[in-house]
Amino acid sequence: MNEPTTHQTAPLVVHQPTPITPATVRPGPVAHVQPGHVPAVASVVLPDGRVVTGYSVAPAQPEPIATKPVVSRAAVNVALGGVGFLAACGGLLLLTSFITALTALVTQLVILAAVVTGGWIAVRVLTPSGGTTVNIRRAVFKRNHFHG
């Protein structure tokens, strides 16, 4: 089904132009030219005998790319400093939030310890104990003197 096919191709012939030597060029009429830059004239003989004469053309130059204004090093440093300051502010904000939460936790632990300690003291005082009897009698103050 898929048999290779061979194509017959003619051999490729490349013709190189032959420049005209000054002996074969017949001088033309002399034209007076303003002083200045005159481009060189090039003549080429083609393989079929025709002569092509013309000016050499410089290759087209691409449009120059608009250059960006140069940014000073100080401006770059200020911008980078601003970015670093923002990053540090974010870190400080997190740090202050952490300190605030830690302070609230410590406060709650202190309050809890006070409540537990107060409850323990209240239980110790208010529970009747068999061995210790405390007699409380009324104290009398007369003329700034204690009479017990």
Describe this structure in words.
36% of the residues lie in helices and 12% in strands. The mean pLDDT is 75. The protein is rod-shaped, with a radius of gyration of 55 Å. It has a three-stranded antiparallel β-sheet, with no helix packed on it. It has one helix at 73-126; strands at residues 18-19, 41-45, 51-55, 140-142, 145-147. With 148 residues, the protein is α+β, with helices and mostly antiparallel strands.
How are the secondary structure elements laid out?
Layout: E1 18-19, E2 41-45, E3 51-55, H1 73-126, E4 140-142, E5 145-147
**Kindly state the mean pLDDT as a whole number?**
75
Task: Pick out the low-confidence regions.
Answer: none
Structural class: alpha+beta
Give the amount of beta strand, in percent: 5-15%
What would you report as the Rg, rounded to the nearest angstrom? 55 Å
**In DSSP terms, counting alpha (H) and pi (I) runs of 4 or more, how many helices?**
1
Shape: rod-shaped
Query: What is the count of β-strands?
Result: 5
Strands side by side in the biggest sheet: 1-2-3
Helicity range: 25-40%
Order of helices and strands: EEEHEE
Largest sheet: 3 strands, antiparallel
Q: What is the CA–CA distance across the termini?
A: 133 Å
